[in-house]
Design brief:
Helix 18 runs antiparallel to helix 20. The chain has 24 helices and 15 strands. The protein is globular. The strands form four sheets. The chain has a five-stranded parallel sheet, with helices on both faces. A five-stranded mixed sheet has the order 11-12-13-14-15, with helices on both faces. The protein is of the alpha/beta class and about 575 residues long. It has helices spanning about 15-20, 30-35, 50-60, 70-75, 75-80, 105-125, 125-130, 130-135, 145-155, 170-180, 180-190, 195-205, 225-230, 250-260, 265-275, 295-305, 320-330, 335-350, 370-375, 395-410, 420-430, 435-445, 460-470, 520-535, and strands at about 40-45, 90-95, 160-165, 210-220, 235, 330, 335, 350, 380-385, 390, 475-485, 485-495, 505-515, 550-560, 565-570.
Length: about 575
Amino acid sequence: MTLKKIPYGLASYKDVREKNCYYLDKTRYIPQLEDMGQYLFFIRPRRFGKSLLLSMLESYYDVATVDEVDLLFKGTYIYDNPTPEKNRYLILSFNFSQINPQLEEVETSFNEYISSTLLNFGEKYRYLVGDKYFSTLEGATTGAQKLQFALDYIGAMGHKVYVLIDEYDNFTNTILSAKGRLAYQEVTHGAGFYRFFFNILKGTAGTNQSGVARMFITGVSPVTMDDVTSGFNIGKHISLEPRFNEMLGFTEQDVVDILNYYAIPQETVLPLMKEWYNNYRFARRAKNYLFNTDMVLYFLDHYLENNGPPEEMIDQNIKTDYGKLRYLMVLDRKLNGNFSYLRQIIEENGTPYTRIAQSFPVEYLTDPENFISLLFYFGLLSYSSVDELAIPNETVKRLMYNFLRRGYQDVNIFKVDLLQFETMVKRMAYYGEWRPVFEFLAMEVERQTSIRDYLTGEKVIQTFLLAYLNVTDYYMTRTEHEMDKGFVDLYLEPFIIKNELVKYGYLIELKYLTRSEFNETLLQEKLTEAKAQLRQYGRDPRLQVLGAGIQLKSIAMVYCGWELKVMEEV
């Protein structure tokens, strides 16, 4: 039997089916989407399968694919349970990631893209719309005007259009993060061309003679939609609906089925994938946690090619651009309150604040509750229970640590030579040379005094260390990890599945004194307490089976304010 190909990087449903790729059937959601309403809005993080979903809808509803039903859908749920709307519509599909976001080019690029899309639409359906469609289309100048004509023309002829818009906020998010709010508002407010485009969609969809029968829009945040439609009144926002929690992504059973299909051993691979790629849940009362689609396919593609995990556990395509969050945390070269919220979320691995805003305009983007909502929509937080949001997995945790490093660097609070530091961590992992790593950070804190105001408290120190220890993947870093009826502050567990050359693991116990309470007696008491705890943790039976050749070192550290006063190996 020829195994199906891994569809990593494919966004075309037709390609997935024609090229004999593994496809997890999501067609069962088609009837549910029809029942939800005509105009739908759906948000998911980057690389979660939104484009493939839209492509599947296009293949199902397109009048032009009526002769390809067997090829495209045989073996799926919808093939055996078709709806009356199958192959009923002309499909008008936009992907706004193709718009040039450079401010001086964006409007021209937008108009040219809309014009090109409408011309291609006409060519595809020439047998239905006739030649007059093209001659009349030339009379319109802007993209919005051409859209107005096309939809009115189609409606007058008695045809119906399904409008699909993918990555609707791609170029507006780039403008916002790169050029700021005023530039963004020129596009999305008042007489802005993008707002006018959505005015046309709203107005046309609301008339009896409209050519628009259905509309499905996807993106990564609700902000632009709120701005271009004055509070999101263009349709129904279904992103937080429990019934659509699993419309994108893989459940654990889905991943188990995939591993079984490719005869990949689950014993080591499934726990690894769960730790790095799992635990997304987009509705408070949804039953199942989800794996990120791209992450799973990325891993499997590399595993089948090399018979082992990828060199880099995080796909470069999945990384949320720091620039998309920078403008929320940095103002006038200073870190604002949202940076503190981000740091606190990392320290606590989440937040008890769970009220996700369905929409909010750009003016309120930096409000703390909206900042948390945006982290949720970006996939940096997810429901861990009905009353808590948490960082979902190791991939996101490492992205968050990177945001901390970039934030400190961005405003000249703290900057280190990461290449030099990575070399030190490598020697720590391979040869047990741990002292230079922590001495280096302590010396840099001593030299770069701006960081000192941020290093207050044991949790803060712990997070600061982890932000830099995670520049490499020699270790799986655990915080407050349970060991022998206690909780060790930091456990650097050798990531030997990924790197068999790592020979040293570390238990680190931190103690903290304020500068006002410091004295030598108290310092020694804290050091003695840390050593006793480390001896207790070291008796945990799980540490005895780390692997052949792995040595475990226990390090006690005492900080006084920002200053590392003492560190000793137990």
